[in-house]
Amino acid sequence: MNPQKPLQFVEIAPHYDLLMRGVPYSMWVHYLQQIFQRFDASPRRILDLACGTGTVSLLLQRTGYEVIGVDISPDMIAVAQEKAHKSRSSARFYCQDACDLDIPEESFQICVSLFDSLNYILEPTRLRQAFQRVSNLVERGGLFIFDLNTEYALATRMFDQTQTSANAPLRYRWRSSFDADTRLCRIEMEFQLHERQGDCNFYEEHWQYAYREDEILSMLKAAGFFPIETYQAYTFLQPGPKSDRVFYVAKRSDENVKDLQEFNDESSK
């Protein structure tokens, strides 16, 4: 049985951009644009699913796309909305669960979900529901692009990280544990924020689920996505047994979902 999902991205939300200040967001956006070019995609409107504090959304908007970002954390969305307001960005942000995604009267040529966000959906039935919700919003011929941490990454404790430098304004210690039977990874995150008025300590507990490629491909096809390509992160190389992050690029099929499900059922016999 999956654990009850704890509150996540709450205490860290106001400090998330500080935590992520070394992340090469511009490189991520460049990689997305390489994917667009590779698949001959010319999107006008992009959905940034599990957008966090909206950094990628804002970068994409500045590049010339119309962007809507959604995230389950109201605290992260509040930061994203404030950033958009301060930068006078037209990007819009909504607090929604990916599994119950509902953006009336909107459609998108591209949906992206980055930085292992979908690993946080701990129940496969809920992830299937999220894929179907995305399929309902992505136009036929459009793309769904996302990445996942692999089982290898979670089993080898990739999340075990420490930053305790005296010069670091945000210090942290993360320790993870992986259950091979349930494929659940628990990450205990201790933070210390160093400010002039004194240090502030806080804690978050995060959980991720290790999805396997065959499961993801089956879910995507059932939701109406085909063909599907997989890549080792930030490359166009095929993933290997020790790949820690895999990108999926799935095309919303021109066929309807029912026909695809019948085709998949027939192919599996």
Describe the structure.
The protein is α/β, with parallel strands linked by helices and 269 residues long. It has helices at 16-19, 25-38, 55-63, 74-86, 124-137, 151-155, 213-222, 257-267; strands at 45-49, 66-71, 92-95, 108-113, 138-149, 161-163, 170-179, 184-195, 198-209, 225-232, 245-252. 36% of the residues are buried. Residues 258-269 have low confidence and may be disordered. Helix 4 links the parallel strand 2 (66-71) and strand 3. Helix 2 crosses helix 3. It contains eight helices and eleven strands. The strands form two sheets. A seven-stranded mixed sheet has the order 3-2-1-4-5-11-10, with helices on both faces. Strands 6-7-8-9 form a four-stranded antiparallel sheet. It has two domains: 13-150 and 212-267, Rossmann fold (3-Layer(aba) Sandwich), CATH 3.40.50.150; 154-208, N-terminal domain of TfIIb (Single Sheet).
Helices and strands in order, then pairings?
Elements (H helix, E strand, L loop, with lengths): L15 H4 L5 H14 L6 E5 L5 H9 L2 E6 L2 H13 L5 E4 L12 E6 L10 H14 E12 L1 H5 L5 E3 L6 E10 L4 E12 L2 E12 L3 H10 L2 E8 L12 E8 L4 H11 L2
Parallel strand pairs: 1-2, 1-4, 2-3, 4-5
Antiparallel strand pairs: 5-11, 6-7, 7-8, 8-9, 10-11
Helix pairs in contact: 2-3
Strand order of the largest sheet: 3-2-1-4-5-11-10
Structural class: alpha/beta
Order of helices and strands: HHEHEHEEHEHEEEEHEEH
Bin the helical content.
Answer: 25-40%
Measured by DSSP, the beta-strand proportion falls in 25-35%
What is the terminal separation in angstroms? 30 Å
Radius of gyration: 19 Å
